[in-house]
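Quick one, T. Sequence first:
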Amino acid sequence: QVQVEESGGGLVQAGGSLRLSCIVHGRMFRDYAVGWFRQAPGEERECVAAIGFGGGSAYYQDSAEGRFIISRDNAKNTAYLQMNSLKPEDTAVYYCAADPRFGVITSTPRNIDYWGQGTQVTVSS
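Structure tokens:
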């Protein structure tokens, strides 16, 4: 059984940085692509970044491009989302997701196999 666990959320002032971590337990982490999603109150869940098995493929939502960096350490079964120059509109619950199919993460998230419980990120103005 695969378990996905996020950490690293919190409260930060606008312009600040946070690093989220996602540990995937139970299977060969290197066989999974990983995505970071967020959902603000009243909004749909959206993918902000995704990374392929070996880290060679990466996707960023336009709003994250140039500010967020997704990475992974397969030896630690962990993926990261470094978020810089944070804005109040980045406030949301951030979720980590794992799936063997990179395309599913970026295009059809409703079919993603495994999700974490989410971590709150709040950016104050």
